[in-house]
Amino acid sequence: MADHIQAALGLQVRPNVRSLPQHASHVVEIDDPDIDRLAYEQRIELLADVIESTDWETLIDAAKARFGSSR
Questions:
Q1: Cα Rg for the chain, rounded, in angstroms?
Q2: Is there a contact between 39 and 47 (Cβ–Cβ < 8 Å)?
Q3: Is the pLDDT of residue 68 over 80?
Q4: Which are the contacts of 14, defined by CB distance < 8 A and separation ≥ 6?
Q5: pLDDT tens for each residue of 7-56
Q6: What integer pLDDT is reported at residue 70 of this predicted model?
Q7: Which residues, other chains included, contact 62 with Cβ-Cβ below 8 Å and sequence gap of 6+?
Q8: CA distances from 59 to 12, 30, 39, 42, 55 (A)
Q9: Is the pTM value of this prediction over 0.70?
Q10: What gap in Å lies between CA 50 and CA 31, rounded to an integer?
Q11: Above 60 in pLDDT, residue 71?
């Protein structure tokens, strides 16, 4: 993508194109360079715990009440 942007704009330098997660990580590091991050396995475990502990029926019912059941 960076190459396409460079060619389309006729730039002599390569643009710095990052994904949203990369950009967010960089912004967090600027604010707190010593921040600890979860390892890949820890992120997977955290996500699994959130999915398992969420009352999905309540969320679905609330969404239906708010937006209707046609969505």
A1: 20
A2: no
A3: yes
A4: 2, 3, 6
A5: 888 877 776 778 988 888 889 899 998 888 888 899 999 999 999 999 99
A6: 65
A7: none
A8: 51, 36, 29, 25, 7
A9: no
A10: 27
A11: no
Question: Are 8 and 2 within 8 A, CB to CB?
Answer: no
Tell me the residue type at 71. R
Q: Which of 25, 35, 1, 33 is nearest to 15 (CA)?
A: 1
Tokens of 13: 């330098």
What is the C-alpha separation between 63 and 69, in angstroms, rounded? 8
| Residue indicated by tokens 């190459």 | 3
Structure tokens at 32: 């707190």
Domain boundaries defined on the chain: 1-36, 38-71
